[in-house]
Specification:
The protein has about 100 residues and is mainly β. About 0% of the residues lie in helices and about 40% in strands. The protein starts with about 25 loop residues before the first strand and ends in a 6-residue tail after the last strand.
């Protein structure tokens, strides 16, 4: 069996606003399961999780910046807007997406 590489970049989504992008090492990303409205991604370097809103041209709508070590894995719940994540701190944590009012 052969797997063909048919990747095509649809859109690049910027991580940082005003920071040195070389500090963000993105290790995981996933579309939300219930609506595909959000993409969540986790990084090390900045030790942060961000959620991007597809309905707002993939602008960051919320983030968690107080993670002690990098985020290497995350997953959306099958229902609702919760995310479980894990990383260098040897813990599994979860949070709920609560977009900021703009």
């Amino acid at each position: 069996m052969c797997i063909r590489d048919r990747r095509k970049v649809i859109q690049n989504i910027g991580w940082l606003d005003g920071y040195n992008s070389e500090m963000a090492y993105v290790y995981c990303a996933q579309f939300s399961k219930n609506s595909n409205q959000y993409i969540a991604a986790g990084c090390s370097g900045l030790n942060e999780i961000k959620v991007f809103d597809a309905k707002n041209r993939y602008q960051s709508c919320c983030s968690m910046k107080d993670i002690k070590k990098g985020c290497f894995s995350l997953d959306f719940a099958n229902q609702g807007n919760r995310i479980a994540f894990g990383g260098g701190n040897c813990m599994v944590q979860y949070c709920e997406i609560m977009p900021q009012n703009k």
